[in-house]
Amino acid sequence: MFLALAAAVVSAGQTFTCTPTHVYDGDGPVWCAEGPHLRIGGIAAREMDGTCRSNQPCPAATAIEARDAMVQLFGGPRGTIETGHVIVAGPRLVCQSVGSAGGSRTAAWCRFPSGADLSCAMIKTGTVLRWDHYWKGPACK
User: Fold this and answer.
1) What's the CATH code, domain 15-130?
2) Coil, strand or helix: which one is 70?
3) Ranges of each domain in the chain
4) Is the pTM of this model over 0.85?
């Protein structure tokens, strides 16, 4: 059985790197090789049980569609583990912490090596929605 260790939350305002190793759903958590577990900033995806929380936007796409879109942004699946996480070997992201997203998750805005914003890339897939209450990101092109 695979057991994930609790991740430390990166303090708000800190810049850190994240090389994605596992993806659970379309807005996180994304597990980083460097330790943090990310909640992607400013977006909302369906929960894995298909529901949406009453206080957040509810996209039409399923949770699986959103998760798989993120997995594709990270180069495709490499397998799965018992928790339902998909194994990836993503590019090294540069992230800016917004602080705790509850539990051991760090809310963060992340950029690909190309400079493209991860939250904007996920919105472009059509599987997640911008969450205006938390949006502090760039204007997506």
Assistant:
1) 2.40.50.90
2) helix
3) 15-130
4) yes
